[in-house]
Amino acid sequence: MEKLRVGEIPCWRNSMLEKLRAVETPCWRNTVLEKFSAGETPCWRNFVLEKLRAGEYLCWRIFVLEKLRAGESPCLRNSMLEKLRAGETPYWRNSVLEKLRAGETSCWRNSVL
Length: 113
What we know:
There is one protein chain. The protein has 113 residues and is mainly alpha-helical. It has one domain. It has helices spanning 2-5, 12-21, 26-38, 42-53, 58-70, 74-86, 90-101, 105-112. The radius of gyration is 13 Å and the shape is globular.
């Protein structure tokens, strides 16, 4: 965890996407990334992933993606991704992403996980 904070890991694109290709986070890969490919989640794709590529939102990368990889975030996986499948993402889109824009990522870490 400390190494992640000081940036001693490969970038998100080179490490996490390789893990997604390796089927280590199947639920994430099968729902969200397929929607990215289809252009169905433009706000998420254009804002959050661009920030992750730039090395921003470290707490999101540390807490959410690490837990997804370990299978430790059933609430996110079973609830939020199910909503993404159904196109019902009002909380995700209106609350979480607005907080990310405002730099309030601690709320995401403390409440969703």
